[in-house]
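Q: How would the structure tokens look for this protein?
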Amino acid sequence: MKTYQIQIIAFVMFTGIVISLGLNTKSKISKADYKKAFDENTKVFAVLLPDKLSFAGEKIPLDRFYVREALEKEITVNTYFHSSSIFIIKRANRWFPVIEPILKKNDIPDDFKYLAVAESGLENVVSPAGATGFWQIMKHTGREFGLEVNGDIDQRYHIELATEAACKYLKKAYEKYGNWTLVAASYNAGMGKITDELDRQQEGDYFDMIFGEETGRYIYRILALKELLENPQNYGFYLRNEDLYQPYQLRRFTVDTTINDIPAFAKSYGLNYKEFKIYNPWIRQAYLANKTRRTYTISVP
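A: Here is the predicted structure in token form.
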């Protein structure tokens, strides 16, 4: 767990103690009263691991101590990193209904939706290396798998098209490895790295291999997020349905011409510019040049 995460947890626990005493931090309090309040209000539990777990139909070898300990670390991090995990649960309710049917259509196991969570937390973020969108796709990879990526249009921000591109990569990797866990690991490290390590370590099982920290934790992070999202109450998360972000209700239409003024175009549909970009983040400018008369799909409520 990172230092700032520990600091947040410590602050929350200390604040609870202060509130329970009905005192502010400048009030004088006896050591005995402080110790009593601390004991009554500070309770941190070790997480309980599931008895069995799978990824994409492949059994996780929880009988191996190093697998259990690595999984315990990632579940603990996500259990006690409350603010991040709460928002992941909220966003999953909005975006899983978009991602799931695309995975199914492409014969990709449903569990790969948790890979998208591990990659981006289900947000259109950009990594320091330039990986972009829910699926954290690099420019060259996006273009390789059919996405338009340039200064005006960046379809890595288009959730449906980016998911389709991710599926193409995953299918290609499965043709190479025939193992979904290694496919997921290759999404992080690249197929070249996974192949080199398979040869170097003379192993065929991700869980019996040594990787650098990022790839070595990657599958366990996905498994931890799967467990948290499928069984949130087991880890102390109680969200009501009204707490969850609801899927957007959108209608779509196509355009094959230039849109010179997106803000004005948005207003013609009763939207401001910001609202329009929320639903169409792949349009990166305040216009749609479309000199080649390509057909694009626009989404509005």
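Residues 110 and 301 are 27 Å apart (CA to CA).

Residues 3-41 form one domain.

Upvote if useful.
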